[in-house]
TrEMBL record:
Protein name, per record: Thioredoxin peroxidase
Keywords, comma-separated and alphabetical: Cytoplasm, Disulfide bond, Oxidoreductase, Peroxidase, Redox-active center
The UniProt record lists the keyword Nuclease: no
Organism annotation: Dysgonomonas macrotermitis
Domain called Thioredoxin: residue spans: 3-177
Main location: cytoplasm
A biological process term (GO) from this entry: cellular response to stress
Cell location: Cytoplasm
UniProt family annotation: Belongs to the peroxiredoxin family. AhpC/Prx1 subfamily.
Keyword Cytoplasm: yes
Single GO term (MF): thioredoxin peroxidase activity
Catalytic residues identified in the record: 51
Length: 211
C-alpha cells in the first residue's frame, strides 16, 4: 500500500460528469491548486448497494465542505456515460440523482493504480498473455489534498466498508486548524477545541487541562 501523504497528488486528465448532468473531457484536479482543498474519493462501481449511500452522504454535507473551501470529487472505473446514467436515476430506484459534485471516469484503471487503490493488478499467464488478477475496481480510498496539491490525509476501506463523511470533515477541520495556529491536534480532536504545542511543555499542559 503506497502512502501518498506528504507527496504531490498524482495528476490525471480524464472524462467526468459535473453538476449532475454535464459530461466533460480533460477533467483534472490541477484546476484547484492554489484555490481549493480537495476531498478525492474512490468507490468500486456505479449501480451498486453501498456506493450510493456514500455518494449521497457526501452530497448531503456539501455545504459543510464548501464552507471550508473544499471541493468533493468522486471516482470509479466506470465510464462517464455510466456515471451520467446513474446520476439521472432517482434515489428510490438505486440512483444518485441530486449529486452535483464531479465524478470522474477511470476506465483505463490508471488513476486507481496511481493512487494505489486498485483491488487487482495486471499479470501474465503461462502463455505470456496479459491478464488481470483480482477485481478491476477501486477500494474505497479517500485523499485530502491541500491547496498546494499535496496529500495530507488518506484512508482506504475494503469494498464492503462504507466511510464516515463526518470523519472526513473532522480531518479537514484539523488540517485547517494546524495551518492557521501552528499547533497540533491530539486524539479525537474536534472543531472548537484547542490544540497543543508540539513540545513536552505543551503536551503536559494539554494533559493537565483535559483530565
Amino acid at each position: 500500500m503506497a502512502v501518498l501523504v506528504g507527496k504531490k497528488a498524482p495528476v490525471f486528465s480524464t472524462g467526468a460528469v459535473i453538476n449532475g448532468n454535464e459530461i466533460v473531457e480533460n477533467f483534472s484536479l490541477e484546476q484547484y491548486i492554489g484555490k481549493k482543498y480537495v476531498v478525492f474519493f474512490f468507490y468500486p462501481a456505479d449501480f451498486t448497494f453501498v456506493c450510493p449511500t456514500e455518494l449521497i452522504a457526501f452530497q448531503e454535507q456539501i455545504a459543510e465542505f464548501e464552507s471550508r473551501d473544499v471541493v468533493v470529487v468522486g471516482a470509479s472505473v466506470d465510464s462517464a456515460f455510466s456515471h451520467w446514467k446513474w446520476l439521472q436515476t432517482p434515489q428510490n430506484e438505486g440512483g444518485i440523482q441530486g449529486v452535483k459534485y464531479p465524478i470522474i471516469a477511470d476506465q483505463t484503471l490508471l488513476i486507481s493504480k496511481n493512487y494505489d487503490v486498485l483491488a487487482g493488478d495486471f499479470d501474465y499467464n503461462e502463455e505470456g498473455e496479459d491478464i488481470f488478477v483480482g477485481a478491476p475496481q477501486a477500494y474505497r480510498g479517500l485523499f485530502l489534498i491541500d491547496k498546494q496539491g499535496i496529500v495530507r490525509h488518506q484512508v482506504v476501506n475494503d469494498m464492503p466498508l462504507g466511510r464516515s463523511v463526518e470523519e472526513a470533515i473532522r480531518v479537514i477541520d484539523a488540517l485547517q486548524f494546524t495551518e492557521e495556529y501552528g499547533e497540533v491536534c491530539p486524539a479525537n480532536w474536534k472543531k472548537g477545541k484547542g490544540g497543543l504545542k508540539a513540545t513536552q511543555e505543551g503536551i503536559s499542559d494539554y494533559l493537565s487541562h483535559s483530565h
